[in-house]
Design brief:
Layout: E1 2-6, E2 9-14, E3 21-22, H1 23-29, E4 32-33, E5 48-55, H2 60-63, H3 68-73, E6 75-77, E7 82-92, E8 99-100, E9 117-123, E10 127-134, E11 140-147, H4 157-191, E12 198-205, H5 207-214, H6 219-222, E13 234-237, E14 250-253, H7 263-272, E15 281-285, E16 289-296, E17 299-306, E18 326-333, E19 336-341, E20 349-350, H8 352-364, E21 378-382, E22 385-388, H9 389-412, E23 422-426, H10 427-432, H11 435-440, E24 451-455, H12 457-467, H13 469-481, E25 483-484, H14 491-499
Parallel strand pairs: 1-7, 9-12, 12-14, 15-23, 17-25, 18-20, 23-24
Antiparallel strand pairs: 1-2, 3-7, 4-8, 5-6, 5-7, 9-10, 10-11, 13-14, 15-16, 16-17, 18-19, 21-22
The structure holds FE2/S2 (inorganic) cluster.
Length: 508
């Protein structure tokens, strides 16, 4: 068992899946964010944690940051310590620099009276993450995550909808419900509890994921005008989803704002604290579908922009998910290109954050022009992993869709980027990307005040909805009152999109 502790409390305990990864990477997968001041390059020596068990010994680089007494005490650098077995204890320091993104201890997490167990899950297109809570003590008993097994039907929501419309709807539904049942089983086993003790659950996700979970026909979500007959914001018996937990167990499905503004963004808005901000503030969930929410003077405005799957590594010649073997960081030092590979392995691919860094680095080195033109058709990053002119083109389209979406949303309410007080970046890719690279290539407007990674806000919001009925009322208000700004036929968006295609800093 891998246990993550802080202040004597267990934040998460997970079974090892056999994959080598650093402690910092595991924390990220579990949505427990640890400050990595040098981006996890092993250069700053700041990501200290007490780590014991099945981990690789400290290498020379790590040893250069740690004194002999620190090493004897079991202190290690989370970004350098590689997990290589199933028994590991990680004790995180109780420092203010630590931001826990599991939803545990999140401000505003108020609990109604309850008994038994509760589970909250984020059904992402790529991964499914579930937390288990004791509803009486309000303690987080564990977190489990796995790849969304619907991946077999295609990597993105479009291919899943095609599969569903092609008669695979029942299979898609069963695949995800089995996955949720299995995650709950593992969590119960770890916590020494029974699945029949699960009395309530909250499952969030984008609109397509919730439609597929409920077995609803997705045709209306697949074509213009993208209507939504089911907007959720209600409970269904767990047994109706084939989940044989407590006989009275209800599953709450949070409300969706629109066909492309799902319950995940409703949960993200709730958990981010966007509603409490005095100054206009922004939340951007950047993925295949970029969802952007803006709060101004008590009013919420949202838009969805189709970035395409480039940020997930799809359609990129060496593209890959953020898994061991993927280049996740690229930087330059004295005119030379350096790369970091997840799991310290031979590079086998390039994930979204690596793609962004690589484009920024090539731009810095003059190997790619602002127009996207590359003299060489491909540049070697490491081994067989290349960045090609075609990849740069795909990135330009994706990043322009996001930047133009943010600008159009701001423009529609007479704001510019410097008016924004706070920006959160949500979602897996949004939390991993390096802000500096995002600004250098023009994914985010350069005059937008510094954005911060928010971690898995959808999961944190789901936990809040599990804890309190009042939060459910707030979520329903968010979804009911949000103003959707349509981008598809919006001339401002089209103009911005064309202008933002350049690789380089963009002012709002
Ligand atoms: S984050 Fe800098 S050494 Fe780990």
């Amino acid at each position: 068992m891998i246990e993550i502790m802080q202040n004597g409390h267990c934040l998460a305990s997970v079974t090892w899946d056999g994959k080598q990864r650093t402690v910092a990477q595991l924390l990220m997968e579990l949505s427990i964010a640890l400050e990595l001041p040098c981006g996890g390059h092993g250069r700053c020596g700041k990501c200290l944690a007490r780590i014991s068990g099945d981990v690789e010994p400290a290498d020379a680089q790590e040893q250069s940051h740690l004194s002999a007494p620190q090493l004897r005490e079991g202190l290690r650098l989370a970004c350098r310590t590689v997990i290589c077995g199933g028994t590991v204890q990680v004790e995180l320091p109780a420092s203010a620099a630590m931001r826990i993104e599991t939803g545990a201890g999140r401000a505003g997490m108020v609990w109604d009276n309850g008994e038994g167990l509760g589970v909250s899950a984020d059904i992402g297109t790529t991964t499914v993450v579930m937390q288990m809570w004791d509803r009486q003590t309000h303690q987080l008993l564990g977190v489990q995550a796995c790849a969304n097994p619907q991946n077999h039907f295609g990597a993105d929501v479009i291919s899943r909808m095609e599969a569903s419309m092609g008669g695979k709807d029942k299979e898609l539904q069963q695949t995800v419900t089995s996955c949720l049942a299995e995650l709950a089983r593992q969590l119960c086993q770890t916590a020494g509890r029974e699945k029949e003790e699960i009395r309530t659950a909250v499952f969030t996700g984008n609109t397509v994921m919730l439609y597929l979970l409920c077995g609803y026909p997705v045709r209306e979500l697949a074509a213009a005008p993208f209507t939504m007959s089911h907007s959720f914001g209600r409970s269904v018996p767990a047994s109706q989803l084939g989940l044989l937990w407590h006989p009275a167990c209800e599953v709450y499905l949070p409300p969706c704002i629109g066909a492309y503004m799902g319950a995940d963004i409703t949960c993200g808005i709730l958990a981010s604290g966007l509603l409490q901000e005095k100054k206009p503030s922004l939340l951007a969930d950047i993925g295949t579908n970029g969802e952007i929410a803006l709060m101004k003077e008590g009013r919420l405005y949202c838009c969805a922009t189709a970035a395409g799957p480039a940020f997930e590594g799809v359609g990129i010649s060496s593209g890959s998910c953020a898994l061991p073997g993927a280049i996740d960081r690229v930087w330059t030092e004295q005119g030379k290109l350096y790369t970091h590979v997840i799991g310290e392995k031979q590079a086998a691919g390039l994930c979204g954050s690596g793609l962004l860094d690589a484009a920024a680095a090539l731009l810095r080195l003059g190997l790619v022009e602002e127009s996207g033109y590359m003299e060489e058709q491909a540049v070697e990053l490491q081994g067989d992993v290349f960045l090609t002119a075609k990849d740069i083109r795909a990135l330009q389209l994706a990043k322009s869709a996001v930047c133009a979406g943010i600008q159009t949303l701001l423009d529609s309410v007479d704001l510019t980027a410097p008016d924004i007080g706070k920006t959160w970046l949500a979602g897996g890719f949004g939390s991993r990307l390096r802000i500096q690279s995002a600004v250098e290539i023009g994914l985010l407007p350069a005059d937008l005040p510094k954005a911060e990674p928010g971690g898995n806000l959808a999961l944190a919001g789901a936990a809040m909805l599990l804890a309190s009925r009042d939060c459910r009322d707030t979520a329903e208000k968010i979804a009911g009152e949000a103003v959707i700004i349509e981008l598809a036929a919006n001339p401002v968006f089209q103009e911005r999109f064309m202008a933002d295609i350049i690789l380089g800093e963009i002012q709002s």
